[in-house]
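May I ask for a single protein's sequence together with how it folds?
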Amino acid sequence: MNDMFFTSLGPRRGSQIRQVAGGTRARQTERGWEIRTLGTDAWTSIDHEPDVGAEAEAGGWQSWSNWTNQTQNPIVSFVSEWTVPVPPAKTNGQTIYLFNGLLDATGHHIVQPVLQWGPSPARGSTNAWGLASFWVGGPDDLMFTTHWTEVAPGTVVVGRLTLEAQNNGLFSCTAEFDGYPATQLTSENLPPMVQCVLTLEAYGTGPNAPYPKVSFTEFSAISITPDLVAANVRWVASGGAVIRKDGGTGARVDVAYPAIGS
């Protein structure tokens, strides 16, 4: 089994990754790492010995759009929909991610519902399109992922992120795909999550490991709540992304697939 996996915050070793069932809550406290599964009230401790940091791999974010909330009001939800692309014409170990995600101000945490092709941290991932939710923290932290759920090309998926304030001044963030309860993952004890991103991320692509044979994927019906926050949204495009409709309600953003071999 591959012991190194690609994430939006750098590579992670298999020993750092924890696979959890849909509906699981995860957190880090002064006692260490804990999870609580759906339908239970008890938190279970998880042993973790920090690994030596993994070296960066070629690849990463290819095309994306972002916006940072600088208002006095926290984000409550961030939702987008997009269509599962056709499969790549050839498969040779490439990993492709499409997601909406939330990061804290320092970029130390990202919570994301991820449409993915190829090997990923999610158990069961393979050369097919599938869904899973990730929480990635620092290079020595644990990473949490739900199990991989296959989804057919042409399916419209809705990635949803929901934030709630905790009574300790921190936040919880739930990532999920609507209609796929196995993808629900809640991360607790987070700092304010203020960076919204819509992203195409990829590793190991090339002439024998191409992207899908399409020019772009459109993120549509992009919605950020509450309205006081949505009124301030102005997307910034990078890596060939195109903002088709700006704003925090009903926005549309295209992310572009690079030329083969780039």
